Structures
1.
Amino acid sequence: MTMTATATVAETKYPKSDAEDVRTKFSARDVSVFYGEKQALFDVALDVPRHQVTALIGPSGCGKSTFLRCLNRMNDTIPICRVTGDIRLDDNNIYAPDIDVVYLRARVGMVFQKPNPFPKSIFENIAYGPRIHGIAMDKNDLDKIVQTSLEKAGLWNEVKDRLGEPGTGLSGGQQQRLCIARAIAVQPEVILMDEPCSALDPIATAKIEELIDELRSNYTIVIVTHNMQQAARVSQQTAFFHLGYLVEHSTTEQIFTNPDDQRTQDYITGRFG
Amino acid sequence: MAKAQQHTVKSFDEELNQLENVLVEMGGLAEVQLDNALDALVRRDEERAERIIAADKKIDELERDVDNRVMRVLALRQPMADDLRAVVTALKTASIIERIGDYARNVAKRTAVISQNPPPGTIQSIARMGNMVQGMIKDVLDAYVSRDVQKANDVLVLDERVDLLYNSLFREFLTYMMEDPRNIAACTHLLFAAKILERIGDHATNIAENVHFLVSGEIPEDRPKGQQSIYEVEDS
């Protein structure tokens, strides 16, 4: 797969529309994951629609983060981890032998629970990715990408006068938005978020949730959260995992007002355990 | 407490605003229905009465819309404090407005019978009582939208006068029925119509209490009473 250095990003490819866009971005079929002998996911089938937020919920150890990491092949970095089944991004199998995994991880970006800015300046944090992927034509281009990414992450106004300062000097909420900007800078189509607000206070969390709402017009978002209320606030689709199985998935409204499966209802009403 | 600034997550504000818009639309429709019903009565317009009866369905649909929106907001947004009161009050108020719509339809249903040979002045009496109640509805819905507790209190006071007017109309219609049995059919329906209007007035006071709860989180324990004693008869 070759790198295409398009300057303008997803906003021209996926214009915002009022109607929910139900075309599928990711489709997973018969996905199982093994850590050595232990099976962590059992035959998961799930469609992730584009330009929507899909939330993966479930108790600890249910496999939701494991599934998330399949979507950009982060599980490849774990030696004992084995993934079977079929995962397609825009109808292309991401585990095909000719797939450029580095490019895949630019198209499918990831934001983690604990903000992890590089030990570099704010500017360098954002510029690093586009530079090594060869996205920027020149210094001017790079400056523009850095500014656009920070604007899209809602951080530009707060940091525009101190781009040379270390990224680690920002508050927790700002650092997380910096990490989102960093993911955006390499022109992804999908942003995966693994408990992005767990380490943040309620105000910072609300700002990230508003940001997620704005981002979905240009990106597809999949978010893992152990906070069901956050899943309810932020997502349009919800998938409930339990003990490695995908128990139920539907619209968020359906899941939280009238789920089909007793296990789902028990979990969301706090009757578990 | 003053109305707070907007929520950080803007879509939450939009959902709350849309919920209130549907409620306001319901209230407006109910007001129109009542106005038309009274007008149809005064003009003895049976055709118009039929249209009013059919139009009640729209209010029922809007109530279901409010129900669905409230469920959605409660499940997906976990509203707290004033947001929670706003959502719960919207649910309760929608139910009341739907009843008011039903009552307006019931007045319209009686147009045909009442308009045949009513005793002189009786339809005008009903219309006057109807106008008082219309004023209450309009004021209480305004109070709801503007979160105006004082205006809601004024509606509570007005209900006393409506009840007094109902009592005096009751006596008036009884007199006509005793004078001449041919008046009984029309006067019985006039009585029902008066009772319906009195019930609408009561519902307006329920909405007024909801406004209290919405704004302050409390329901007034003692309804503010008017100056008149219960033995006085309203001059009609």
2.
Amino acid sequence: MATKRVSIDPITRLEGHGKIDIFLNEDGGVAEVFLQIPELRGFERFCVGRPAEDMPNLTSRICGVCPEAHHMAATKALDDLFQVEPPPTARKLREMFYCIFFATDHTTHFYALGGPDFVMGPDAPKEERNILGVIQKVGMDIAGKVLKMRADGHRLIQMIGGRAVHPNWGLPGGVSRGITQEQRAEIERLGRDAVEFGKFSLDLFRKIVLGNRDYVQLIQSDAYTHRTYNMGTVDAQNRVNFYDGMIRVVGPDGTEHARYHPRDYRDYIAEHVEPWSYLKFPFLRKIGWRGFVDGPDSGLYKATPLSRLNAADGMATPLAQKEYERMFDALGGKPVHHTLATHWARLIELLYAAERWVELATDPEITGKDYRVLPTRKPVEGVGCVEAPRGTLTHHYWTDDRGILTRVNLIVGTTNNYAPIHLSVKRAAQELIRKGTAITEGLLNRIEMAFRAYDPCFGCATHYLPGRMPMTVVIRSPDGRPIHELRRGGPPGPVMPP
Amino acid sequence: MKPKGKLAIYWAASCGGCEISILAINEKILDVAAAFDLVFCPCLVDTKVRHVEAMPDGSIDVCLFNGSVRTSEQEYMARLLRAKSKVLVAFGSCATEGCIPGLANLTTRREIFETVYCEGPSTDNPEGTVPAPETRQNGFHLTLPVFYDTVRTLGQTVPVDYSLPGCPPEAPRIWDALVAILENRLPPPGSVLGAETTVCDECKRTREEKKIKRFRRIWEVVPEEDKCLLEQGLICCGPATRAGCGALCPQVNQPCLGCYGPNAGVEDFGGRLMSALASAIDSNDPEEIERIIAEGIPDPAGTFYRFSLASSLLRRRAMVPDARRHELPLPKAPEPQE
């Protein structure tokens, strides 16, 4: 029976955005860990009765940090629902828009959230483990690059999709408006800057992280390693794609477990319910729910940037492909199960997103006027799937003859990783907290790093802004009296203008 | 030097888009930082709830509160921040009018739980487990906030001084409001910090006072780029919606969704929009009018109250509702941490 409880409130105890409880046993080791999501909004229910075409705009309100992902998954579900194939220009515009979003979002994560641990080191003083510290360490010009990358991304998203937050653009069979030659030129120019930014970011990662043996050991340590299945969307050649493709799942040993059309997701994914959280736990149906354990007999899977690279055979653009090979060579081949390598994979995806953005911006069809076809068939049922930055995102709708929703199912990005995040935190806590362990700032940060690698956006479940997650750890005596308290986190340094 | 003011930014049931929009004021955030100490903001600074509890009442100068109130925890935070703040601003659509998550007021908690946890097409839950406010899991005691039947706006929970509409409020409007606060020239309490005009006044499309014989769904027609969308039969919320965004959606050939809420002086968004649509219908025959509405507007609740159901005169689907809600344990103060 647990005698001590260590509460790690990602935000704070009562703020409703996710909370970790670590229960210690008599021996001072970790007895059990619970990551609770204390909020629900019920989109699956209240969207019933709404016109299906409202879904891109209704579901974008699931998350204001990644509204583009829900907007796009919903738009694709409408294509399927109305059985209408968007013309090539529409498909390309959507994928380009989506790559701009991906590059922008991954930039935020790496520089504001996950990166400072590496650039500054996990044991650096907390006031340095933030973007300010990063800037001081590697130079002021980086701040300018990061801000420019984010500002460019947001400006283009508004230019193409109508609004920077909650765009209003996707329709069954295409998009509401195309782009002009002038807009295309600007998108291309900023895309080329983004490719340079992606290269620069990987060089920075190599120099600071990979050039330090301690960090490499940390990445490969047991505390941050567990062997689960991995999921990602792949194109016809099994290369990573964010916008469209087949869903591929590989086992802990890297062999293919499944490769399926998004429409068949229910044959492969099921969701488990626990009474102590408002969020469900997806798992692989054919393997089954075995609780919070890893290995080939447990149906837990991850859907993260690293998972996408593990599940694919390569990247579809040349620079990203080189980086892909480099990462797997350095970490001992595929698949890689070290959670912290997710940061590296995220930067490779950033570079891919930027390269693909330029490819599409220079495609002769991208300024075509044929960006929309009107549906003519009766709506029945549709599934739309994209890779959100934080995992595979699935929207599934059923309607009546008039296109009024009768049933809705959503499996959102971070949710896929709920059980693995749980497992990662437990593993890190078990490895790091043992009898007599002094609970230090650095130790807390190392536990926090276990879930920060996933970039968990419980905005898709609850929500938090990419930024530093303040934490409190309270150690309680058997009678519940707090005997020790540590706080860490604090201001993230300068806020990041989008 | 004048002492810095104390600013709090809080999120309840919201999507995070309001925070993203605040950051979009870009370098002006430095002016805000120069004028205010950010004393509470879970996404940015490490002040805990119990620190806020320890502050004297009225010691926070301005609190920007986004998100609606849907759980016991959010209700507690709304009350706490009301007590601690001199000026409480309902920030964004969720806090001011309930926003899209407020459409949950067309359902009940039980229906939501059944749909999500028991009947989900991919849910594997033979035991019919649903989350509970209190559970014992292998002897470990765990709690969750109580999930209410009804989504409430901030103003339905505690008295609010100002509201700033929009989903999310556009960055220039956020800056306008901050300047008004910084220069201490806020309008009388109760005011909406926003424009007096409508989205139509900001929209560059030409209107010809043309009437329509049928409403069209957005997937049924490719609208002409320069003409009024409503006059092309699309349900555009522009005539009923407060200006402030610059008519962004019509610029990408999509109708206004109404995210900026009712325009000045209008209590019920849906009522205003219905009257605007009614005056666009080209018929005097009651039967024909009825047919045009029934065929063209298959989801009146979701169309007229997409963002504003929780704050509308309707508020929610009828149930014996709030009686039932009060059978639930009243929200308690957070467990003290020391």
